Amino acid sequence: MTSHPQQDVCCLMGDPIAGNPTQYMLEKAFAAAQLDWRFLTFEVPSINFEGALRGARIFCFDGVMLAPPHRSQVMPYLEKVGDAARISGQVNCIKQVGGQLTGYNTEGRALRQLLEQAGAVNNAKVTILGAGRLARAIGAELALAGAGEIVFACRRPAAGQELQKTLLEQTPLTQCHIETITTECPLTLDEDCRAIVNATPASEPLPVVIDSLPRRAVVADVVYNPPTTWLMRQAEECDCPTIDGLTLLIEQAALAFEIWTGVSADRQAMRDAVEEFLIL
Fold first, then answer.
1. Element (H, E) at 51
2. Which residues contact 66 (CB under 8 A, 6 or more apart)?
3. What is the mean pLDDT of residues 175-194?
4. Hey, is 141 helix, strand or coil?
5. In this predicted structure, which of 3-12, 122-131, 150-159 has the lowest mean pLDDT?
6. What angle do CA 197, 202, 203 make, to 5 degrees?
7. Where are the extended beta strands (E) located within 15-57?
8. 218-221 and 193-198 as β-strands: parallel, antiparallel, unpaired?
9. Whole-angstrom Cα distance, residue 198 to residue 245?
């Protein structure tokens, strides 16, 4: 392991932050790559966020990960922003070079890359459950990557319509639709749907007619604890390929690691760390 006079440092900022596995996972990733880097975690209330980010800049932190509520608050303090982060209004990863801060969203990119491996993005129809923070990040990334149609199935149609307008105006996407769903009026999936993504924090039964799940569709869930959610169990029973929330958590952190270091992340070491941290 190489040693330098000044260690490279990255950090996580959020509020609340207790129980977040990011520091443990990324410290293990640095060690696996034989990098003498350190990762710190700070609980930062919104009122102190501007000052905390200024401190990270002054102390030359190489990178910052952001947890809620700061992902939507950081835009005014960045010199550059990636396209998906700009469109979604969500930044979860910052890289500092020469005092300049660049913001990225690796959450949407992580899912996009995993779906692309299954051939479920380019010209494909994707249904996203939710219209909140994660749905925005995922929708923006898939729209920029060439999805053929995106359907947002949500309980609050106004949020979905605002997101629909943003994507149609700011990305190449030409087909975007909103479905209002409730417990009494669950979502029936179209046969040509290639991917279904739960972008809500709900891990219990979702308002989806499982019998309508296309057998070739890829099913993803952002919930990582527990990693085997109701939706994952239903998809496995239907023999659908799945992407669980634990895999997504690891991939988005691995992408941040690679943005900061330029070194490939050891995803198995990161998985082992998260499973140990969460006692899975």
1. helix 49-58
2. 12, 13, 14, 74, 91, 92, 93, 94
3. 95
4. helix
5. 3-12
6. 85
7. 37-43
8. parallel
9. 10
pLDDT band at 1 (very low <50, low <70, confident <90, very high): very low
Q: Distance of CA 203 to CAs 56, 69, 179, 223, Å? A: 35, 21, 20, 6
Backbone phi, psi, residue 142, to 5° = -70, -35
Number of H helices and E strands in the chain, helices first, is: 9, 12
Q: Is the pLDDT of residue 175 over 90?
A: yes
Residues 6+ apart with CB under 8 A from 243: 111, 114, 115, 218, 219, 220, 221
With a pLDDT cut of 70, the percent of the chain lying above it is: 98
pLDDT at 18 over 60: yes
Q: How many CB atoms lie within 10 A of CB 56?
A: 22
CA 250-187-216 angle, to 5 degrees, is: 60
Q: Which residues contact 81 (CB under 8 A, 6 or more apart)?
A: 75, 91, 102, 103, 104
172 C-beta neighbours (distance < 10 Å), count:
11
Task: Catalogue the E-assigned strands of the chain.
Answer: 8-14, 37-43, 63-66, 80-81, 93-97, 100-104, 125-129, 149-154, 176-180, 193-198, 218-221, 242-243
pLDDT in tens, 34-78: 999 999 999 999 999 999 999 999 999 999 999 999 999 999 999
Domains contained in the chain, CATH given: 8-105+247-278 (3.40.50.10860), 118-243 (3.40.50.720)
How high is the pLDDT of residue 2? 42
